[in-house]
């Protein structure tokens, strides 16, 4: 039945249409299916490998990544030690296996580093590395002071008997088969960022906070009100980096750590699958994750949805251990430690993205209620752990905006600093989308959302869905039902309450992978089943390898062996390159329209489409007052991107402040305040991009 279902699903999966750039004038259109891309990946394998080296046309790199790797390694080693102490304090060292225990130590330590950086940053200590060193050292010794006795006791501990038949030789073979995807994932994680959200706020905000010396809600970037737990791994190395452009190399370090969460997810799935079910469950779950292009895309771009996907799984895992235990064994489980640990992981998921409240925190809490019934102590500890981890982010927003979940729920909190029109603009941009008939919950939309969840999403993995469906029939109900419920909640929140970006479904992927692993374990009990699994999982790995290397489709930079400087220059726009060349370090740039300013080396005053423009006060000023205002802020350059402004103002887009007009800048030209530089793109009468220089006050 599985073989027949998998064949039908594969035909449907490979027939899905895939994105491709519009053809040049006079050229035929290419509308590939997923099967076409996989076939091309097989035929173009030498070209794919050459693309990793820049096609032989770009300088290669290697040692230029050494500093990033060393800093990331130090952070991970320190995180592992902190995680060891956390698990020891919670009496959980014996509850996890080798691989899942290793991964959860890293995850726990990274959570503590994120939390500490957030707290210290809010106290304005980002320019005081000694303060960070003292606090982190104190944290290290405080958590580890009781652990030293355990260090000498470990050699005498009795190892628990193995509960599964070891097949390590085949596991090593699968690891070898996954090496190309693992190498690619690590390689793209170290490349300079280029994805819009990443260079607009995921890495731009840590840079701005570091330059300001404090974590707070910034007036020009509404996203600074979001919880940004994953971005702290970029901010922390900025504090300690020895290079002149410390914010840049710190950002790349953080991007590498975020990118490694695809591998951490696969590791946790392997360990959890082995602990909960068996060897084949471990393999299938881990390979399904590595074979999902969405997760690798997160690693390569620096988006953080894969991080809260990991922490969602890590929050659920302790509950699954309770469900998996026989009733007579529950008394031996450290329920208190498991509840606290689950809450810490759920809180970290919440600290990465707000939707985790509905997709991780509350559903896992419901699972705990089912597991321990009215054990108020354990339930209270879960809630307390979540609260402790996420509270610094909520406190920051209360102090700066009066709204703890800023920029959400603006109409609920009367103290929100935004105008009613700005709140309405944000809510409208993030509401459930309408179809052509103005419907938000039509039958057609329901079916489309259902198909996306089942694999019609462009970058969904091949292997997950058939194995997960099989698990619903043949896997132990005490494990398959909780996973199915979590998956259903994830889909309902995504389809019913969000603006339905497909990557917001990524947190459901590890849950689906673990469910698929449970199905694979039962299928592996049959010889034919094991053969089918080997073919199916191998095909999944190759499919993912082909998809992530199709640059024209997935837009994932594949140049993993090209020098960082060369790759960075490709992603810097002409306008930013001009300003970096012309502006001196003490100059300030006033920008509007373009919010992708991560690579700008000088200071900048700018805004997103949801914020007031920093130059709004100039509208009501005289010419002399305008000169004084610009001089007080050391503004020497004005950068206007009318193309971006037009895009935001187009039908169905986010909108843009109406008072930003060409007439305003023309008036300042007439007043002799601004003069155009040679950087003018497009029609000189109505240019798409223009950069002005602020004229000196004594200029004729």
UniProtKB/TrEMBL annotation:
It is found in: Cell membrane. GO terms for molecular function: pentosyltransferase activity. It is a multi-pass membrane protein. GO terms for biological process: lipopolysaccharide biosynthetic process. The chain crosses the membrane at residues 68-90, 102-124, 130-147, 172-191, 247-273, 280-300, 306-325, 332-350, 356-372, 379-395, 450-474, 481-498, 504-520, 532-551. Residues 344-470 form the DUF8201 domain. Keywords: Cell membrane, Glycosyltransferase, Membrane, Transferase, Transmembrane, Transmembrane helix. One of its GO terms (cellular component) is plasma membrane. InterPro entries: DUF8201 (IPR058514), LipidA_mod_glycosyltrf_83 (IPR050297). PANTHER family: MANNOSYLTRANSFERASE YKCB-RELATED (PTHR33908), MEMBRANE PROTEIN (PTHR33908:SF11). This is DUF8201 domain-containing protein. It comes from Blastopirellula marina.
């Amino acid at each position: 039945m599985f073989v027949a279902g998998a064949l039908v699903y594969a035909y449907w999966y490979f027939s899905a249409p895939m994105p491709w750039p519009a053809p040049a004038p006079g050229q035929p259109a290419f509308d590939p299916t997923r099967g076409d891309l996989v076939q091309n990946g097989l035929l173009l394998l030498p070209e794919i490998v050459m693309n990793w080296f820049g096609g032989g046309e770009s300088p290669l790199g290697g040692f230029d990544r050494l500093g990033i790797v060393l800093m990331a390694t130090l952070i991970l080693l320190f995180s592992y030690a902190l995680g060891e102490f956390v698990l020891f304090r919670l009496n959980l060292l014996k509850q996890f296996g080798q691989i899942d225990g290793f991964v959860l130590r890293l995850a726990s330590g990274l959570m503590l580093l994120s939390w500490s950086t957030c707290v210290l940053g809010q106290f304005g200590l980002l320019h005081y590395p000694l303060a960070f060193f003292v606090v982190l050292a104190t944290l290290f010794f405080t958590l580890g002071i009781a652990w030293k006795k355990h260090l000498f006791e470990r050699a005498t501990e009795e190892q628990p008997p193995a509960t599964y038949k070891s097949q390590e030789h085949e596991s090593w073979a699968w690891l070898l088969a996954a090496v190309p995807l693992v190498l690619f994932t690590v390689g793209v994680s170290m490349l300079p960022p280029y994805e819009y959200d990443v260079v607009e706020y995921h890495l731009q905000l840590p840079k701005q906070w570091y330059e300001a010396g404090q974590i707070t809600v910034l007036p020009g970037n509404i996203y600074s009100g979001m919880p940004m737990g994953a971005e702290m791994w970029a901010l922390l190395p900025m504090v300690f980096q020895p290079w002149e452009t410390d914010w840049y190399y710190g950002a790349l370090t953080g991007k590498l750590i975020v990118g490694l969460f695809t591998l951490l997810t696969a590791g946790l799935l392997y360990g959890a699958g082995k602990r909960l079910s068996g060897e084949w469950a471990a393999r299938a779950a881990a390979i399904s994750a590595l074979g999902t292009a969405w997760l690798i895309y997160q690693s390569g771009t620096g988006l953080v949805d894969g991080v809260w996907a990991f922490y969602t799984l890590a929050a659920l895992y302790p509950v699954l251990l309770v469900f998996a235990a026989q009733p007579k064994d529950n008394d031996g489980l450290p329920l208190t430690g498991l509840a606290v640990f689950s809450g810490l992981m759920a809180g970290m998921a919440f600290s990465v993205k707000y939707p985790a409240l509905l997709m991780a925190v509350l559903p896992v809490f419901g699972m705990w209620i089912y597991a321990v019934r009215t054990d108020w102590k354990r339930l209270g500890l879960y809630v307390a752990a979540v609260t402790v981890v996420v509270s610094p982010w909520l406190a920051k927003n209360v102090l700066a905006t009066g709204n703890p979940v800023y920029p959400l729920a603006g109409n609920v909190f009367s103290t929100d600093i935004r105008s009613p029109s700005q709140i309405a603009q944000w809510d409208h941009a993030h509401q459930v989308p309408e179809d052509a008939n103005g419907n938000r919950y039509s039958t057609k939309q329901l079916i489309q959302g259902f198909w996306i969840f089942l694999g019609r999403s462009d970058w969904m993995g091949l292997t997950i869905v058939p194995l997960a469906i099989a698990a619903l029939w043949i896997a132990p109900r005490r494990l398959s039902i909780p996973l199915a419920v979590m998956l259903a909640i994830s889909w309902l929140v995504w389809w019913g309450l969000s603006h339905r970006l497909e990557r917001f479904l990524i947190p459901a992927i590890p849950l689906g992978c673990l469910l698929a692993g449970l199905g694979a374990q039962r299928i592996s009990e049959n010889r034919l089943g094991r053969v089918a699994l080997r073919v199916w999982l191998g095909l999944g790995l190759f499919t993912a390898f082909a998809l992530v290397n199709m640059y024209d489709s997935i837009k994932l930079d594949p140049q993993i062996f090209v020098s960082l400087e060369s790759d960075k220059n490709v992603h810097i726009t002409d306008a930013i390159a001009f300003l970096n060349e012309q502006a001196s370090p003490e100059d300030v740039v006033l920008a509007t329209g373009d919010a992708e300013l991560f690579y700008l080396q000088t200071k900048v005053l700018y805004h997103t489409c949801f914020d007031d423009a920093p130059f709004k006060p100039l509208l009501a000023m005289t010419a002399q007052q305008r000169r004084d205002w610009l001089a007080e802020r050391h503004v020497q350059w004005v950068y206007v991107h009318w193309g971006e402004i037009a895009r935001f103002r187009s039908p169905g887009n986010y909108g843009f402040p109406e008072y930003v007009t060409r007439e305003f800048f023309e008036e300042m030209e007439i007043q002799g305040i601004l003069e155009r530089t040679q950087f003018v793109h497009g029609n000189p009468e109505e240019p798409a991009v223009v950069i002005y220089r602020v004229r000196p006050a004594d200029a004729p």
